[in-house]
Amino acid sequence: MLSPKDYIEKNKDAFLNELIELLKIPSVSADPAFKDDVNAAAKVVKKSLLAAGCDTAEVCETPGLPIVYGEKIIDPKLPTVLVYGHYDVQPPDPIDLWTSPPFEPVIKKTDIHPEGAIFARGACDDKGQMFMHVKALQYMTETDNLPCNVKFMIEGEEEVGSVSLEWFLERNQDKLENDVILISDTGMISKDTPSITTGLRGLSYVEVEVTGPNRDLHSGLYGGAVANPINILNKMIASLQDEDNRITVPGFYDKVEELSKEERQKMAEAPFDLDEYKEHIGIPDVRGEKAYSTLERASIRPTLDVNGIWGGYIGEGAKTVIASKAYAKISMRLVPNHNWEEITELFKKHFESIAPAGVTVEVKPHHGGQAYVTPIDGIEYKAADLAFKDTFGKDAIPLRSGGSIPIVSLFEGYLKSKTILMGFGLNSDAIHSPNEHFGVWNFLKGIETIPYFYKHFTDLKTKS
Amino acid sequence: MLSPKDYIEKNKDAFLNELIELLKIPSVSADPAFKDDVNAAAKVVKKSLLAAGCDTAEVCETPGLPIVYGEKIIDPKLPTVLVYGHYDVQPPDPIDLWTSPPFEPVIKKTDIHPEGAIFARGACDDKGQMFMHVKALQYMTETDNLPCNVKFMIEGEEEVGSVSLEWFLERNQDKLENDVILISDTGMISKDTPSITTGLRGLSYVEVEVTGPNRDLHSGLYGGAVANPINILNKMIASLQDEDNRITVPGFYDKVEELSKEERQKMAEAPFDLDEYKEHIGIPDVRGEKAYSTLERASIRPTLDVNGIWGGYIGEGAKTVIASKAYAKISMRLVPNHNWEEITELFKKHFESIAPAGVTVEVKPHHGGQAYVTPIDGIEYKAADLAFKDTFGKDAIPLRSGGSIPIVSLFEGYLKSKTILMGFGLNSDAIHSPNEHFGVWNFLKGIETIPYFYKHFTDLKTKS
User: Fold this and answer.
1) What is the pLDDT of residue B399?
2) pLDDT, tens digit, for every residue of A132-182?
3) What are the record keywords, sorted (chains A, B) (predicted)?
4) H-helix or E-strand containing A56?
5) pLDDT confidence bin for B203, thresholds 50/70/90
6) Which of A299, A302, A84 is nearest to A204 (CA)?
7) Which residues of A touch B294 (CB under 8 A)?
């Protein structure tokens, strides 16, 4: 029987070419202008599921963008793995900072990826990682090596909050029944340090708008006499964090889980080089909540970041104007046991309450999701760890991520199963940034490792 | 002899049509894309000066945009009036808020302007007001009524800081020799309350840039662990004003002239309706420096306003990003006895010093100018007051403006003469805003009043 490694060696060019074709489609869910491309990508995913060995695959309509569903049921008595991924991508802006166009994939060698990396929007997040699972299925079906049932649920709205996913889950609980959910949309520590993400932060994303005068004003004639919406917005946002970088929204920390000293000690053992971290993103210093380490600040503590801000004249040269309106997009990363809708309400109430006289303020909740923690003593985690041991020769490190995949806690609610986050991306892959890429080595390593998860999970599940 | 009023009655349609033609040209100095239009406007101004009776007129090249110079010298022994204005205009953004296109002038009736107002960018600031002087000259030459010499200096960079004007003044001091400078680029209190602007604020305009990581980062993976340039920029700008709305830049108020109780009392006598003021610009409340009235805050006190701010993702929908850079355009209005270059340096030093660890900050001075106060006991002011008395039947009110015309103090330095600011615009004309307009009545009233200034000034000057 051909090992995953050998199978991959024979087929890697084809795999890369197929992934490249998928990456060419600008499936940007945030922008309605790309609706046709999103639909085209869904069709390609469906085709690839059938080509990989699914008995059935379909593009399912939803109130929003389609969800692709595929399955191969070999025996109802065997366990079922449900693979989740997404075929939509982040907007590519700012485009002028890409060295090659975001939707013209090209393989380039880098220091971290001497075997080459595919540069394109979505290469890592999430098309590259999602596609590993499709190719892993292809390996298992073509070598008659599939130990259990498999279902695929690949959506098109992850980057905009998976707005239709709950609708889909609600209506398809039987269809989606499974014993474990597998997701590759996170990262590993490095190419020789596999990790399993055991925690995800929650998210609350809002848009705020401050309005002053009913039109832009001349800043000479009116400057000093009226509230300037931009100055006011700055004051309000600045007040949201104190000098210890703690968030000042009343009640924000009430439900935050404090990790035990032992857990924090264990986290501190994960390999982490602060100098390399700073050098890699070109910052002179880190900055965050007092009394927590960098890794802790980025995983087990909640945050508040302004993702975008604009108002007034932002073109070339000078314009002496007091803007009528100022805007910001603000998001908070949450931790257990925050309830994201509650936090959103707390934020909204607080922000609207601190608006000074002279302006009106509007807070528009956008989307969000709960934090999630996966138990490391379950067979799901064990199976993943054994798979990494097979292909990397060492145990995986349990890792709390700073990122959010809001639907993971939704899954547990509707489908009653745990999620395993086996990521093969690297922090340096620059997801959500210009020049996003995914290592060819990482892509192929994922395809190699995933079948071992199926093997071990089926063994452990059927024994138990 | 035909009075100005009668002459205007006969020629007003022609005057309006000529102004409309000039307003069609998008002479936006802030944007190099409009360079050809700026040059075209200069040519039209030159032609109009010759048509109005100038003996010579020329478009003078400068290191930047051209300055139009014209003159009619009738007798070197007579006084000389130098008219300054500008043919460049503010950018029209945001264009979608205009009810008619900014460069397609149209006359519409409004409540304040039942005789109609010309709606276009530059209608009031400054083409309409500048053109009053050209038509006033035409009246005086065609009715053989010009009592003294006249020179015109109409530049094309006022909206971007008049960068080439000092170069021009330095090289043409003899050519520009004059006894008084006349400018119409300010406003009057209302159509039945003429005013002469006796004070202008200074200006310091800077651009600031805060840089954090060397690329945009995923706000889940990095949120909480690194300084977010937008959050930081907000904090820094917020710190520039305290809870009394005083500017916190060290040394900022050291040279600020405090007006005497009597002067402040006199200012408070000017007609001003706070409810109307608030209603007119649609604000629930005014806001400004503690212990000063609205009029004082807008004229005799210095200010700090953010004119534009941007950073991160500002498009449709959500993007969970920590921006690499955040930017703002900030301007300060200054008062006697600020030195604008000194204030710019104070600001730059302070702003760069308050940058926290984790970011780098750059402050780029853009342009500026000194504040100016005109003496109300001189013959210049007297002549203007008498002219207003002739055409309005009442004295003008001396008014301290909040706006800046930085070159006025430059003029005094190079040409050794005072400037009289006779404005015919209204605050409601929305200069620098969408739907800028200029009342037909105001335009014609200016043409009517200006010749009386020439008459009285020549009388007073030759008698003294």
Assistant:
1) 86
2) 999 999 999 999 999 999 999 999 999 988 889 999 999 999 999 999 999
3) Hydrolase, Metal-binding, Protease
4) strand A56-60
5) very high
6) A302
7) 225
Smallest Cα distance from A4 to chain B, Å: 31
Nearest partner of B132 among B114, B154, B147, B113, judged by Cα: B154
Find where tokens 């705020």 sit.
A208
| Domains, chain A, with CATH or none | 4-200+371-463 (3.40.630.10), 202-256+302-368 (3.30.70.360)
| String of DSSP letters for B399-423 | EE-SS--THHHHHHHHH---EEEE-
Query: Quick one: closest CA in A to B432, which residue?
Result: A218
The whole-angstrom separation of Cα A54 and Cα A309 is: 45
Q: Residue length, chain A?
A: 464
| Bridge partners, A437 (sequence order) | A119
DSSP string spanning B51-83?
HHT-SEEEEE--SSS-EEEEEE-S-TTS-EEEE
Nearest CA in chain B to A312: B308
Strand partners, A202: A334
**Closest-CA distance of chain A to residue B254, Å:** 18
Quick check: B226 and A434 CB within 8 A? no
Alpha helices in A269-406 (DSSP H): 274-281, 294-297, 340-353, 379-392
At A205, the amino acid letter reads: Y
Tokens of A47: 């085709």
A186: pLDDT strictly greater than 90: no
Distance (Å, whole) CA A59 – CA B331: 55
**DSSP bridge partners of B333:** B203, B303
The alpha-carbon gap from B409 to the nearest alpha carbon of chain A, in Å, equals 17
Asked whether the predicted pLDDT for residue B447 surpasses 90, the reply is yes
Which of chain B's residues have a Cβ under 8 Å away from the Cβ of A228?
Answer: 305-306
Which of A307, A313, A318 is the closest to B312 by Cβ?
A: A307
Is residue B289 within 8 Å of A231, Cβ to Cβ? Answer: no
The mean pLDDT of B176-197, rounded to a whole number, is: 93
Q: How far is CA B458 from CA A25, B83, B181, B348, B377, in A?
A: 76, 15, 13, 46, 17
* pLDDT score for A107: 98
The C-alpha atoms of residue A102 and residue A119 are separated, in whole angstroms, by: 7
Q: Residue B233 pLDDT > 80, yes or no?
A: yes
**Residue B346 CB contacts under 8 Å (≥ 6 apart), including other chains:** B249, B250, B251, B252
pLDDT digits (tens, 9 = 90+) for B77-129: 999 999 999 999 999 989 999 999 999 999 999 999 999 999 999 999 999 99
Q: What is the mean pLDDT of residues B438-453?
A: 98
Residue A464 has pLDDT above 80, yes or no: no
Q: Which of B91, B281, B326 sits opposite A319 (nearest CB)?
A: B91
Q: To the nearest 5 percent, what fractions of chain A are helix, strand and coil? A: 35, 20, 40
| Predicted TM-score of the model (pTM) | 0.81
Tell me whether residues A219 and B307 touch, CB distance under 8 A: yes
pLDDT digits (tens, 9 = 90+) for B349-390: 999 999 999 999 999 999 888 998 888 889 999 999 999 999
Cβ of B331 within 8 Å of Cβ of A323? The answer is no
Would you call A294 helix, strand, or coil by DSSP? Answer: helix
Confidence at A275, pLDDT banded by 50, 70, 90: very high
User: If you write DSSP's letter for every residue of B102-158 in order, what string do you get?
Assistant: TTS-EEE--SS-TT-EEESTTTTTTHHHHHHHHHHHHHHHHTT---SEEEEEEES-G
The neighbouring-strand residues paired with B67 are: B60
Q: Which of A307, A310, A434 sits opposite B309 (nearest CB)?
A: A310
Q: Does position B25 have pLDDT exceeding 90, yes or no?
A: yes
Tokens for A407? Answer: 């639907």
Using CB atoms, which residue from A225, A316, A331 is nearest to B297? A225
CB contact under 8 A, B402 and A222: yes
Nearest to A205 among B187, B310, B318 (CB): B318
